[in-house]
From TrEMBL:
The chain crosses the membrane at residues 893-913. The keyword Nucleotidyltransferase does not apply. GO terms for molecular function: phosphorelay sensor kinase activity. SUPFAM superfamilies: ATPase domain of HSP90 chaperone/DNA topoisomerase II/histidine kinase (SSF55874), Calcium-dependent phosphotriesterase (SSF63829), Homodimeric domain of signal transducing histidine kinase (SSF47384), Tricorn protease domain 2 (SSF69322). It catalyses: ATP + protein L-histidine = ADP + protein N-phospho-L-histidine. Residues 965-1202 form the Histidine kinase domain. The keyword Repeat does not apply. Keywords: Membrane, Phosphoprotein, Transmembrane, Transmembrane helix. This is histidine kinase.
Amino acid sequence: MKNTLLLRPILLISILYCLFLVSCQNQSKSETETTVGDFKTPETIPLTFTEQEPFEWETITSDTLKTPVTYSLNVDALPSKPFALNDFKPLKSPMKEFDMDWENYPTEQLKFDSVPFTVTTAPIKKPTITKMKPPGIMEGTNANLLQLSTNEGLTSNLIKTIIENKDGTTWIGTSQSLILYDGENSFSYDYTNINDMVFDDQGRLWLATFRNGLYVLDFKKNVQYTINVFGDQLSLVDILYDQSGVIYLSSYRDGIYSIDTKFENLKELVTKGTKLPLTLFEDHNENIWLSFEGGIGCIGKERHVLKFLPENLKLNFALDIKEDASGTIWICSPEKNEVLNLSLQQKKARTLTKENGYDIEGTRLQEDENGRMWIAANEKVFILSENRNSFKSIFTNSKIRLNGRGSILKRKDGSIWIGTLDKGIIMTNQFTLKTEYFDTSRGLINDQVWEIEEDSRGELWLGTNNGINIIDIKNNSIKAISTEQLNSRPNNTINFIKEISKDIYFLNTRPGFSILDRQKNTITHYDTSLDLFGAGISAINEHTFAIYTNQGLFVYDIKDNTLKKVVSKNDPDILKAGSGSVMVYDEEALWIPTTDGLAKVNLKTNSIYYLREEQGLIDNDTNAVLFSEEGELWVATLNGMAVLNLKENTLTNLKQENGLIPAELFDVVEKGKFMYAASLDGLIPIEKATFKTTNKGFYTFNGGLGFKSNDYLQGSPRFLKNGQFWSGAANPSSVFKLLVLDAAPQPDSLESSVFITNLFVMDENPGFNEKTGIDSLNNKVSSYAIKNNITWNSIKHPYSLAEGLVLPFDQNSLSFSYASGDLFNKDQLTYRFILDGEDEDWTYAAATTKTKNYYNLKPGNYTFKVAARGFTNTWSVPDELSFTINPPWWQTWWAYLLFGLLFVGAVWSFVSYRSRWLKKENRILEESVAHRTSQLKNKIDELKATQSQLIQSEKMASLGELTAGIAHEIQNPLNFVNNFSEVNKELLEELEEEIEKGNYDEVKALAKDVSANEDKIIFHGKRADGIVKGMLQHSRSSTGQKEMTDINTLSDEYLRLAYHGLRAKDKSFNATLNTDFDNSIDKINIVPQDMGRVILNLITNAFYVVKKKKEQNPKGYEPTVSVSTKKQGNMALIKVSDNGNGVPKQVLDKIFQPFFTTKPSGEGTGLGLSLSYDIVKVHGGELTVDTKQGEGTTFTISLPMN
């Protein structure tokens, strides 16, 4: 057998090494496990109010009130002006339709001639990196549009082409440079006059320039290829990468070219008389459509034939060709103000012209994600509906065509980007077609709209800062009622309009208010001393109104022209904390938001209750209240939203830490399953079903989505019956607008995107290039990475990050930069990141933090992950960068193996030496152990004998305690035997005399007495015999044989024996004996002599301690020993109690230990309780003690009855 001893240390070292390596890598939480960065779940607490405050009504005297004055006002006779929302409107007439005889259209055979060309190479020009501002709001339009221009960091506002890469980055060709835009930064490359560009399958970017040649940028190899026709400069205007992998180029002065991606052949398309090509497009059937200055052509899939459209479909100078989702080809020409669409499947052609309402010179086409066709032109975009029978136009305030044709792009996020010639890029979003704005330039009497009321006729009443507008949406008209017609002050804000019954309106017209009766064509003005500016007004019924101002709460009854005010004897300032509030009445109470909390005014009981910060309200400065359809009361405050559930008496607060951003709220409205909070900076939908349990936060629709005015005017937000949202709003510059949304804004499910954009090692840019240190142009590369032996497998673009990165141990401090590709609501962006292998959990970072540093990382494998959360409040899929830090050579596996082998060799040498020495020592030790073992065995035998003697001594000691008692017990039956023997002797003598006398009757009587006395003699003799036998049983060793025993009798017998024994020793001793035996206890199966010893030992100890206490002569002390039995469940309890001094606490846990005694030396062996404890345990029972110092002790024997 081989000796495997030496293999074990190696195996052990290997296991320990593996465990060490594993332990060095922290186990990190995944993005689905972590809650870092999530908002706090809203807290719901019990709803409580302050104690009620009674109030009284004070009637304002008639001297203060003026008599209402009625004036004539015929609203229907007021002059009107046109007013129309920019909705989709039907085409003025259907598009003209033509049949297509596609197979018979004129054709010509294609001919490609080879063209000499040159290819030169150079490194790609290094970009200039600029931190970009978020897209700005596009001014000068009435739609939600964003703008990316020089104001935000672009190098030029003249945009010629835009494309989107697979990774979500956007490439922009301007008049001055090529720009990579990732949402955070622009990377500006010095390539000018780019008219169009495209990516091929290898990820190379092809740039078609005007008179600067054709560039191909290979970022992976850091190579720029420049292709030029020999002896000429191409004027490239369009480029196409077809599905077969061939590049097609249109050169405005030269023709159509094709080139393969290997740069082997450049060919020119030779056609008959067709010149000045412009546009190239490939449809899903792989047909290539071309526009020339003079016609439209189509090259078939086989690339053999060029087909031309006939004269009736001929368009000159077509600038764009696109295909929609149905396969229809759209061709746009600004020369004829016409758009042509061709369906090869249906063989139909249709034209969109001025006759249909098409009123622009369109240059670019793009179908959006909803199937609508966008046609861009100077100053305007024409949008054709998905069913192609209606349209709407958007004014863009920008130029698209001047000396170019502009550009248009549909991004993956659904937005449309339009490149302009003077305003940079215009960005649309989901609200562009849903939103518009109105001011005095579009018919309003004033820009500030503070109230919107939809009446029973379907008309909208707008209360402004200078009168009222009445909008008839059905008839597209608008009327105005001036402050003069209202008999109100100039520039007076009308902030409350309510139709209290059919055609009767309550108007807040300062000073006082007015009732407008549209049927009687009158307006009645009620002039009061109240300043109703910013007042909260609520209709209690058709003729009674509650009016809340900073002067207090009033109730005006227009029927009898009475005004009452709430007053209080205890509080002269009751309800004077006005807030310009929106209050509600719920048939019993007014709910009034104030600057001192929410007031509940019960009009039936004349009492007020407050909900303030002390009761859990989020903020005392409240602005508006509204009951939801579910009956919950929503309270808008300057620090969030409070929701009162009056049925369940709960209060839920929503604040900034719950994701309600911003928390300054001025109003709240309801639509469907959402409540909409009108805030200082946007509209926030809150889902009623989930807001109490969500930790994901809430959306905010604001300027980041192009909303021009986001500070909503209190009291104006309103959802109309048709689902539209109307509200007055202002921007930070106090420019006021009327905002109209055609539907309630809904949260979007689009996730954010995020990119790792840069990596620094030891605060140095590593300069990742080819891993060999030589670039593709055979130029030597001297970068920080190469110098410091940093290796990698490949480069990840566009940020030139290394994949398969491996760093030496001394290059272990890294810095990561990251950014989000989100373009909308960038101010709501936040991030979280983690370094797997270092961090245990993610770290939350605000939008301003874009860099994370790690220093002195240990050797191991790491992955840096970063996720972004934007407008949708959903964390993105993390971007990742993995790398490895190698250990120094002395921490590598082979070094540990070498160290292990050296250690094993040293151990082997040491073990060999020690083995020889130990063998010698072992022999000596064995001899010594054998000798000591023999001695130890003798000692053990002696101890066992001594132990037996001690145990027997203990038994005999207990027997000695019994001797006097046994003698006393035997003496009694012996006295009976002696007495009855003497009596029988006398009776026998008397019997003989009677026999002699022949008195046989007397003889018989005497014989019976003798016989009875003999029975008594026998009884007491047996009694003495039993006592003797019991003594013998107690004195000899137990047989261990269990018997059914009456524990009551056993306990009583040993109590008496112990007592008489002690009395025999000390005649002066007396004690009270108490017994309480439970007769319901059946006989139990025990070893009677063993259990008797236990009981005797406990009783003897009890007599001992009471005797000792008696000797101390305590006043009034009477020694008492009690023995009782009790049935408790399936257990029989035997308790022995005394009223001695008790057991000291310091020795209580030792009393059952062998040889431990509290008696003076010579009075005890210390084995009594120990043996008793062991006997009870053998019987399956338990012996416990309960003692109180100075009061006594109780020992309890618990024995199973089964």
